[in-house]
Design goal:
Structural class: alpha+beta
Number of strands: 40
Distance between the termini: 27 Å
Helix content: 10-25%
Number of helices: 15
Strand order of the largest sheet: 6-5-10-3-2-14-17-16
CATH architecture of the largest domain: Sandwich
Number of domains: 4
Length: 807
């Protein structure tokens, strides 16, 4: 046989190996009883067909292409009282020799009300318009096609935005400027403002062909651990508290803090932190006497009037009234938690479990690609069980995917302990893409439990962390460093011992209000103000009263409306109200298959000039600048959040293969090649590998083997054997399929495998449906491999069908 013939056969044999591996991977069960998925299986699970997973950035060989067009992010923050107004300026510059389109995925606060955007090219400034999402995208694509400068700001998640800037010519500098406002949180006497700087890599099991356009941002390049961002970060904050500032600290970055007077301070990021956009910026301050802003803010608009009410709950409770509690700790031990985040989780769990009362019960569920329980039902908080729990968490190293939803379902299915108040504590970095599904799951079970979430890491997914707690009537916590773990665990223990206020009700007397958010006040656990937004008619008069039950009995607090001043400086209230309404009906409130909320959220976005999931900002300069040729799309590579290991990007553990992909604009097909003598997979392009790779000595020995990215389109089983059992058994037969190897190049194709597991457990009626050009050797290899499989003897037959796309 010719050299080329040998190479062709090896290509198809290699494809078989990957197909076989991926069949086993995709059929891995989520949970194996009371034990974690074995290490080797966890690795296989993590390399499964996650076509939307992020990848490592590998710089193109094209010297004329600027692959890091974002040069600077400048943030100016003005905090007046409890409201922050933020301006974010992003500067893009093309230092290459080809026109480019820059794409940058960046985070946002979940509370941010984005109300404006501008684009500046040279002396020309274009104010962006708010449009329906599809209309804005259409305008942008048309402008890009016609060679015009344009920018598009889209919301991919309530805390993830994407900026596209089209037709940046060589030497051009384009400045985008976006404005948002948000309410500053206060808890336990401390105010906290945070500015997120980087979107962590998200785990997704969704195939590309079924993904919506708003989900494709997940496929983003990342730098390796320890690599600093390419773009500069500048932050300046001015705080005008209205009350004397007692202390001010930046936990996350080195800063210069200047006190202009007793109630005003200016904070500037230190020059040494210029390339620190790999962790959230967190500014914390206390007011004299640990005062928390309470009272009523009023704004009279042209067509509608808005109010913001803040009331401080009681602080004391009677310990004798605390019922016995059942705590269920759900702890993320996936690849993105490897290292520092998991170390903090261990510290938190030790402290939390050790502080339980003897009358309490508890359980621990660890999850990654699978899940493991401490016990089949919750156990007493005695020293023996506490020791077992600590040993269990201490043995974890972090690896595998992040299958949060199956873990929540398994935790909820634990036997209910009568007479105990059930509390779930979820510890994770939140690097998943199924936020809405998780919120729906918890919302459908409201009244059964309360939820507290610990977000662990320097740049956690606050959308998930906050959303799980909000939908579950609990409180979110974020731990950014190990030093906080003990204090946060103690604070949590105090909070969940007893709700500070229950059976809450707001009463409006003589004050005409409507569209109040939230519509009802849940149990209040934390020492933080109750915040209510709404609209009002007529004259600002009457009284607002809060009625509830505390540990000491009935609680009542009132605010005189007429004593509050109507002020034009409170204009941000209209944006804050609209954002609160959107959060209620869309961020945390929608059911995944219920689309009735979309028109309402869209109209809110258009009316209030706000960025939403269904409205976007678009700015177009009608001057045509790219005449000959098209621009090249560049995805700005993101740094891994500080403390997050490379295992977060397509890896499950130290010995598993990291999915890496080179970004090369001219190549439509990503290729994957294993580095010689390495456990990682390095992304390369056809250009950098060289097109004449077939028939070489290296390929004959397998050193240039291609590791493709198959995606399961469909997998069904019907008959006597359950799908869960069948999936486990197929995964166990992985070692029988290791005789096939692949070499470059390969084009995407689809294969269907059908067979029957008969009563004896043998494989029968095997059919392979492959493209017409598939060599005979590949079909024969598939048939020989699968015919060796055997399954448990059963009283009947099981039909199996697997469809896989290889690409």
């Amino acid at each position: 046989m010719s050299t080329i013939g040998n190479a062709s056969t090896k290509i198809w044999l290699g494809a078989l190996l990957v197909i076989s591996i991926m069949v086993a991977i995709f059929l891995v069960p989520v949970s194996w009883g009371d034990s974690m998925v074995p290490d080797a299986l966890a690795e296989a699970t993590d390399i499964s067909g996650r076509s939307l997973s992020p990848y490592f950035f590998v710089k193109s060989d094209d010297p004329e292409l600027d692959q890091m067009p974002l040069k600077t992010t400048r943030v100016d923050v003005n905090i007046a009282g409890v409201i922050a107004d933020v301006k974010v300026v992003q500067i893009y510059k093309n230092e290459g020799l080809k026109p480019i389109e820059a794409v940058y995925v960046f985070p946002a606060s979940t509370k941010a009300s984005v109300y404006g955007m501008k684009m500046t090219i040279g002396e020309r400034t274009i104010t962006a318009e708010i449009r329906r999402r599809e209309d804005a995208r259409r305008m942008y694509e048309k402008a890009k096609e016609e060679g015009e400068n344009a920018s598009l700001l889209e919301q991919q998640r309530p805390n993830v935005f994407q900026m596209n800037v089209a037709n940046i010519l060589p030497g051009d500098e384009v400045k985008t400027e976006l404005h948002y406002t948000e309410l500053i949180d206060a808890i336990d006497g401390r105010y906290e403002f945070f500015f997120p700087t980087v979107v962590g890599p998200r785990y997704s099991s969704q195939a590309a062909e079924t993904a919506s356009s708003s989900a494709r941002w997940i496929e983003n390049p990342y730098l390796h651990r320890g690599k600093l961002p390419f773009h500069k970060l500048e932050i300046a904050v001015q705080v005008s508290s209205g009350m004397p500032i007692r202390t001010m600290t930046c936990f996350s970055h080195r800063t210069d803090i200047q006190y202009l007077d007793t109630s005003t301070a200016k904070v500037i990021l230190a020059p040494s932190e210029s390339f620190s956009a790999n962790r959230d910026f967190i500014l914390s301050y206390r007011l004299a006497g640990d005062q928390i802003e309470t009272g009523l803010l009023l704004y009279r608009g042209d067509d509608e009037n808005y109010f913001l009410l803040m009331l401080q709950p009681p602080k004391d409770f009677h310990e004798s009234e605390i019922p016995p509690r059942e705590y269920i700790f759900v702890v993320d031990v996936s690849g993105s938690m490897h290292g520092y985040p998991l170390d903090v989780s261990k510290e938190l769990l030790r402290n939390l479990v050790s502080s339980l009362r003897p009358v309490d019960l508890f359980n621990v569920l660890l999850f990654s690609g699978g899940s493991r329980l401490l016990a089949p039902e919750s156990v007493a908080a005695n020293q023996q069980n506490i020791r077992k729990a600590i040993d269990l968490i201490d043995s974890q190293k972090g690896g595998g995917g992040t299958e949060l939803l199956p873990a929540l379902e398994r935790a909820f299915n634990l036997p209910v302990q009568k007479g105990f108040s059930r509390i779930f504590v979820i510890a994770t970095d939140g690097y998943v893409t199924i936020e809405a599904e998780a919120f729906d799951f918890i919302r459908s079970r409201l009244g059964e439990s309360n939820f507290f979430t610990f977000g662990i890491g320097t740049s956690v997914n606050r959308y998930l962390i906050e959303g799980l707690a909000r939908t579950g009537a609990g409180e979110p916590f974020v731990v950014v460093n190990p030093q906080e773990a003990t204090a946060k665990a103690e604070k949590f223990r105090r909070y969940v011992q007893s709700p500070l206020l229950t059976q809450n009700k707001l009463v409006f007397s003589g004050f005409s209000v409507f569209d109040v958010e939230p519509a009802s006040i849940p149990d209040v656990f934390a020492d933080r103000p109750i915040v209510v937004f709404g609209k009002w008619r007529g004259e600002p008069k009457g009284k607002i009263s809060l009625h509830g039950t505390s540990g000491k009995g009935g609680f009542h607090k009132s605010v005189d409306v007429s004593s509050a001043k109507v002020s034009s400086s409170n204009s941000a209230l209209r944006y804050l109200w609209a954002r609160a309404r959107i959060a209620q009906i869309d961020d945390y409130g929608r059911l995944s298959r219920d689309l009735k909320h979309i028109p309402e959220v869209t109209e809110l976005g258009l009316k209030y000039n706000l960025l939403t999931a269904y409205t976007s900002f678009v700015a177009v300069d009608t001057m045509v600048r790219v005449i000959d040729g098209k621009s090249v799309t560049i995805k700005q590579p993101l740094p891994l959040p500080e403390g997050v290991s490379d295992y977060a990007v397509g890896q499950s553990g130290p010995i598993s293969a990291a999915r890496s992909m080179a970004y090369h604009p001219a190549s439509a097909l990503p290729l994957y090649v294993r580095e010689s003598g390495s456990n990682s997979i390095k992304g390369e392009t056809e250009a950098s590998l060289g097109k004449n790779t077939m028939g070489t000595k290296g390929n004959e020995t397998g050193s240039g083997a291609v590791h493709l990215h198959p995606r399961l389109v469909k997998a069904t089983a019907s008959g006597v054997l359950s799908e869960v059992t069948l999936r486990r058994l197929v995964a166990e037969k992985l070692s029988q399929l290791t005789g096939c190897k692949a070499v470059l190049p390969i084009q995407p194709f689809k294969i269907k495998v059908k067979f029957t597991a008969v009563e004896s457990g043998a494989v029968d009626d095997l059919h392979i449906d492959a493209p017409a050009h598939t060599p005979h050797e590949i079909n024969r290899c598939i048939e020989e491999a699968i015919r060796k499989w055997s399954f448990p003897a059963a009283a009947g037959r099981t039909m199996v069908m697997i469809t896989i796309v290889i690409g």
